[in-house]
């Protein structure tokens, strides 16, 4: 479906910027909570596009390009929330007791701006002249085209907004049932396997079901394989080799071995899969950079005026902004070290930090941008990038600080490595999002430089939201592994990615890292890479088993992964059922929006609950006494969850038929 664009359509508008920032506030808060609870985030482009279209339809002069700018701003900010994969590590090691606004804002903003700058020269090579599929960018463009094209499109736009609303209301209500203790927060079973133990858990979370649907069946199957490897092989084997002490039940035994040993092997799987992925991308990335430079040179030599849809920010502006960004970056790193045990080494440490941000950031942005094109930004290997980045940062700063090493110095070096990694991760995730959004823009005839400005606005907006939401959750719940001296609730958030990153930093700098477990995991990762290669080759690319998905499932708790797998299978069955049905394609798109609503509703409810915890001073302010046993509470959660998911899938199918009628 093609939409003719005027030569200079309305794109960046005041109303569009305001709407983009408002959507940003909602999605960034939702992403921060989801990432801290389960270690996963989701792409916000499609729900942002639907909300934008539904609201801007009140203006007769709204254009598809204006809606595209709104989703660009919102998606950039929602993506930036991924820095919480690292930042809570500073609380876990006791360096921060509270989340300070300015250092957190600075790390997010500087990293985000560099992410936009670094991936700009790659646009021609990896977007306009590339056959990369960009699944989420193409899907967002299709949603925009359908929503703007016809009366049926307008009807689908309204149905899409209701899909997000119904999904949000359902998941918020489901989370509220758990908060008032009318159902179990987790359905789990653990049991003995001879001298060992194992089990399986599933969090009562519609957000995770939604995340599974959005990730798709390929990643879902990979995670299911990871569950089987972790809880069907590794945990039973390793618990039998380390029998439990008297009085320790199966649950404590299995979870103890998994958290101390198995998940470190999962980190090894992720790291190896990421390294091999990066190695395979070296050629296309360098080719992309060369192509971008060649295009710029030709344009200059020919002196021709580039078409509007090919106009990026000038390359000298990109270079200038990148260099100027190093000034606040240096100031930020120097102020982080000021007055601490590393003050005497501030100059070499700041130099190492800036060099690392420049070089590692450029590499991470290019790799994540390419992976967004290949498999979508939701599935991009951000976890693997974070693991490799912290290992590199810890080794670099550890070498500088070795001359004055002591307990206080070690803690300060770990904190500094985590802070530098936060900036690099912000570069990576925005690079990831930038190329995805530029693909959407290419398909709707947007102006690249205007989108790039929109991305920068989104980065600043998101950087303002992350610190207060993170501090609210820190004060209300705290995080697993942190002192949590100021936290009110006794149910800390898992923040699994940050726990891993801080553990790796401590291990590298302190010298106690379990390299043997990481090595075993790396061997498993190599085997999985080989299996994935063989599977792709034998099926001509039809089937795959992404090793990063398997590694994540070994590393993350089964309570998180199980509902994600269920969501992936449910989404696959729903999409299959909608094939060849009247309004089937519309129903599929509405299903995606319902699932996005699941994530937004539950996350925002829990952010609001954190606010209530802080205001009331009670750890469980909504809990009411009841006589439900643990088994009964689990059954209630199961029945209610199935009913809500089934009911909203049916609503999507019916709405799809109505729109098509």
From TrEMBL:
> What UniProt keywords are attached to this protein's entry?
Membrane, Transmembrane, Transmembrane helix, Transport
InterPro entries attached to this UniProt entry: Oligopep_transpt (IPR004814), OPT (IPR004813), YSL-like (IPR045035)
Q: Name one GO molecular function term.
A: oligopeptide transmembrane transporter activity
What are the record's GO terms for cellular component? membrane
Main localization, broad class = membrane
Pfam (any one): OPT
Q: Which stretches are transmembrane?
A: 12-34, 40-59, 71-95, 101-120, 161-183, 189-209, 214-234, 269-292, 313-333, 345-370, 382-401, 413-432, 453-473, 493-510, 517-535, 555-574, 590-615, 631-649
Tell me which PANTHER family the record gives: OLIGOPEPTIDE TRANSPORTER YGL114W-RELATED
This protein's name: OPT family oligopeptide transporter
The organism named in the record is Duganella violaceipulchra
